[in-house]
Amino acid sequence: MPTIAVYGAGPALGMAVARRFGREGFRVALVARSRDRLDSMVSELAAAGIEAAGFPADIADQSAALRAADQIESRLGPVDVLEHSPTPGRCPGRLFAGPLGLDPETVRPLLDLYLLAPIALVRRVLPGMRERGNGGLLFAMGAAARYPIPALAAGGIALSGLRSYVHTLNAALRETGVYAGALLIGATIENSQTHRRQAGPAVGSQPQAVVTAADLADRLWDLHARRDRVEDVVAPALAGFTADGQPAG
User: Fold this and answer.
1) N or C: which end of the chain has fewer CB within 10 A?
2) Phi, psi of 190 (to 5 degrees)
C-alpha cells in the first residue's frame, strides 16, 4: 500500500487530499503542529476506512520536517507521494506585506516555510522515489506564485521561487517515473481558516472567489495520475488582472 505524506495538514485542503488519496488506496501521514488536531483528523479518516497517522512538527523548521519524514518511513514505509500545502494563517502578517516595506526579516520566515523546507524535504524523499522508479511531489500554493500582486509581495517572492523549483524539478525528473507538479490557488478555500475569518484578499475591486477543498484535492489527484502538465491554476480572481491589480484589457 502506498503512502502519501501531507505536510501542512489542516481540516480543509489537507483533509480533502487525505480523503482523495485514501480512496485510491493510500495510507496517509498527516504533518502539522497541533497534536490534538492531528488526532482528531486521524480519527475522522479512520472512521472513513482510511489508514492514517499524525506526526506533529513545525513544517517551516527543516530539522523538524525531516524528523517527521523519518518517523513516517519508520511507521508507514517509504513516502510515495509528498504533498506540501502550508496554510497562510501560519504567518499572515508577513504574507500580506507589500513591496515598499519589505525587509529581510519579513521575508525570511516565508522563505523557510514555502521554499527552503520543501527543498529539504524533496532532498530527503526523492532518492528513494528514484530508486523505486515511481513517486509524486505535489505542491499547493497561492497563485501569487504566478501573478505578482503588490499586496501579496512578500508571499509572492517565496512562492514564485517554489513554483520555479517545481517547474525545474518536473523537467529534470522526466523519464524517471517521478512526477513534480504544482496547484496554484487564487481563491479562498471553503471552510479554511481564512474563509472562516472572512480574510481572503481582494484584487482590485474583486473579492476572491470561494472554491471547495474537495475540488482542489481532485485537481491534485489528477495532476498526479495524469502527469501531463506541470501545473494547474485555479485563479478566477487573479487571471483577469494585470500585475498592478488593475483589470486586464
Assistant:
1) C
2) -55, 135
The CA distance from 181 to 27, in Å, is 20
Look at residue 171 and tell me if it is in a domain. Answer: yes
Q: What is the pLDDT of residues 157-176, one digit of tens each?
A: 999 999 999 999 999 999 99
Please check whether residue 243 lies inside any domain of the structure: no
Dihedral angle, C-alpha 198, 183, 133, 70, nearest 10 °? -20
Asked if residue 106 belongs to a domain, the reply is yes
Number of other residues whose CB lies within 10 A of the CB of residue 98? 12
Task: Report the pLDDT averaged over residues 122-143.
Answer: 97
Q: How far apart are CA 194 and CA 241, in angstroms?
A: 22
**15: enclosing H helix or E strand:** helix 13-23
Residues 6+ away with beta carbon under 8 Å from 139? 83, 84, 85, 118, 162, 166, 180, 181, 182, 183
pLDDT at 187: 83
Structural domain including 116 reads 3-234
Q: What CATH number is given to the structural domain containing 31?
A: 3.40.50.720
Give the predicted TM-score (pTM) of the model: 0.89
Residue 239 lies in a domain: no
H or E segment to which residue 139 belongs: strand 135-142
Nearest Cα to Cα of residue 132 among 178, 172, 166, 169: 178
E runs forming strands in 3-74:
3-7, 27-32, 52-56
